[in-house]
């Protein structure tokens, strides 16, 4: 892809503390590429910033964590402007998923040796999402891993919060409809995911989850005790099936619960009793590094 102009969206408050503007300037000067930058603010929607750039640049590159990345993705999906990620957050789930270098200078250099990949997103009750929808303990884990804890211990914040929330979790009954098939089930955590990475270290939810297969993966964690969670981690690493996990795959998923439940759609918290979810195949243009041979 020939790039003449890049617009960077930089979150100055995201996880990493480093001279990102100096890095951008050095790389763009060396490549003779014109660039601009917009800086995010706490109470300004990043999606609105991104929308203002349509038609004004060849590429929107986001320096931030998954909060910024998912918001920009939601603004760009279905359109022609490609995006790129320069990982600047704590977990950087999407960057890991796409094989983008976690080092900022390496990620900037990789912009010039990449190709456009069309990746899937999802819609939940008409809200677009890039990574996943979580109900139950996974949702609590993300909402409760707060900024202060993330600043202090980084990714470990999610693990600490997971242990706290797991101990308190109560199973919920779910009625699922996956591509027309009804399933009555229950568990402590239900995830409808587009991406395989969870963002806690290199921990992947399940092997074989793809962001380009035109389908979403539904993962149910049935039990709430720590040994069962560790079993899941072990089974994922060993790529084996586990009796505490159920896994389905589909294009259209409806989740119904008896009472309104909190759910997380990427970084956004919502409440609903019925979640109508569908995949948006190949809807986002993402610049990704070419695979190393
Ligand atoms: N200038 C700013 N000052 C303070 N907070 C900001 C600013 N700009 C954006 N934010 C906040 O940053 C959050 C998004 O952070 P982002 O996901 O980019 O990084 P992170 O939290 O380090 O990453 P991760 O999601 O991987 O933990 C949003 O809550 C947004 O309101």
Automatic annotation (TrEMBL):
SMART domains: DAGKc
The keyword Kinase appears for this protein: yes
Cross-referenced InterPro entries: ATP-NAD_kinase_N (IPR017438), Diacylglycerol/lipid_kinase (IPR005218), Diacylglycerol_kinase_cat_dom (IPR001206), Methylgl_synth (IPR004363), NAD/diacylglycerol_kinase_sf (IPR016064), YegS/DAGK_C (IPR045540)
Gene Ontology MF, one: kinase activity
PROSITE patterns noted in UniProt: DAGK (PS50146)
SUPFAM superfamilies linked: NAD kinase/diacylglycerol kinase-like (SSF111331)
GO terms classed as biological process: methylglyoxal biosynthetic process; phospholipid biosynthetic process
One GO CC annotation: cytosol
Family annotation (Pfam families): DAGK_cat, YegS_C
Keyword match Kinase: yes
UniProt keyword annotations, A-Z: Kinase, Transferase
Domain DAGKc per the UniProt entry, residue ranges: 1-128
Protein name (record): Diacylglycerol kinase family lipid kinase
Phylogenetic placement of the source organism: Bacteria, Pseudomonadati, Bacteroidota, Sphingobacteriia, Sphingobacteriales
């Amino acid at each position: 892809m020939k790039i003449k102009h890049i617009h960077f969206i930089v979150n100055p408050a995201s996880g990493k503390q480093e001279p990102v503007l100096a890095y951008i300037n050095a790389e763009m000067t060396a490549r003779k590429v014109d660039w601009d930058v917009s800086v995010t603010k706490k109470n300004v929607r990043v999606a609105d910033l991104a929308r203002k750039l349509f038609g004004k640049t060849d590429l929107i590159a986001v320096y931030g964590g998954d909060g910024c990345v998912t918001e920009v993705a939601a603004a760009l999906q279905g359109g022609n402007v490609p995006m790129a990620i320069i990982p600047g957050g704590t977990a950087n789930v999407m960057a890991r998923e796409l094989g983008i270098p976690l080092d900022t200078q390496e990620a900037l250099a990789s912009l010039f040796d990449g190709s456009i990949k069309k990746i899937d997103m999802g819609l939940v009750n008409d809200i677009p999402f890039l990574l996943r929808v979580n109900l139950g303990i996974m949702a609590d884990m993300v909402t409760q891993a707060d900024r202060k804890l993330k600043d202090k211990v980084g990714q470990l914040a999610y693990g600490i919060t997971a242990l706290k929330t797991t101990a308190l979790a109560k199973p919920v009954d779910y009625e699922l409809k996956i591509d027309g098939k009804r399933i009555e089930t229950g568990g402590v955590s239900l995830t409808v995911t587009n991406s395989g990475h969870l963002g806690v270290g290199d921990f992947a939810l399940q092997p074989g989850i793809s962001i380009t297969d035109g389908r979403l993966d539904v993962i149910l964690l049935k039990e709430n005790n720590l040994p069962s969670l560790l079993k899941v981690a072990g089974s994922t690493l060993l790529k084996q099936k586990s009796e505490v996990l159920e896994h389905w795959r589909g294009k259209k998923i409806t989740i119904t619960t008896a009472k309104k439940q909190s759910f997380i759609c990427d970084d956004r918290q919502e409440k609903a009793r019925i979640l109508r979810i569908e995949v948006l195949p190949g809807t986002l243009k993402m610049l990704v590094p070419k695979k190393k041979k």
